Amino acid sequence: MYTTLIDAEHLARALAGPGQDSVLVLDCGFDLTDPEAGRRQYEAGHIPGAAYVHLDETLSGPKTGMNGRHPLPDREAFAAALAALGANRDTQIVAYDNAGGMYAARLWWLLRWIGHDAVAVLDGGMGAWKAAGQPLSTEPPAPRAPGDLAARAGRQRTLTYAEMREALESGGRVVLDARAPDRYRGENETLDKVGGHIPGARNRFFRDNLGADGRFLSAEQLRQAFTERMDGRAPDAVVNQCGSGVTACHNLLAMEIAGLAGAALYPGSWSEWSAQPGAPVAAGPDA
Q: What is the pTM of this model?
């Protein structure tokens, strides 16, 4: 069972072996500035047998204008959507994307949130698959019988806006912001109406989890990097956030790889925080 990462070679073996029916590959490609770009790229070529899941349609819930740009989906509805694609309680699910794992990590986190541990992200994504000389397909996946995946108690913790305000006032948690440094500083904000960051949050840009080849750094490298950001706190005192609760999952995956499991997600993230009346805002470089 793969629970964090899988490389292209091992995925290709799994898809060619006798247990291939117990593996479900999901393409999570997306572009925040062009919501249909991922689907077009999937149709132009994807891992053979992979199904497509859309960030807005499957990996997020309804927006109210106050709960962020990508609120969490309903747990039961999310499980049902993947069961309809053939996911069973014992299915090994592999997620990949075209963006360094930022969307695949969202699917990884959501599945663990509903109690499904057999989920991994393809390390290096589509780029690694192509570099390994593996084939692509433009054909839709063969229909699968509906699976029995259902929401169960998961290990992933979340905080609400109110709990984040309480944590900010008490100083009891370390908040890590996964956005690019310029957006963290309040510069070049193009996705949310207000620029800046949650006061006291530390910047940990999610792309710093990757090496030059687009794959995750070693567990040791990630552990050192996150430990330096955690101010001596235990992982369960850490809250990860970003713009809308998507790239924060990349940091949560990196922490899991590093052996620093237990951190929480603030799902609404900056897009929810900055929409709340009276929410404090900070700007400028990381301390």
A: 0.97
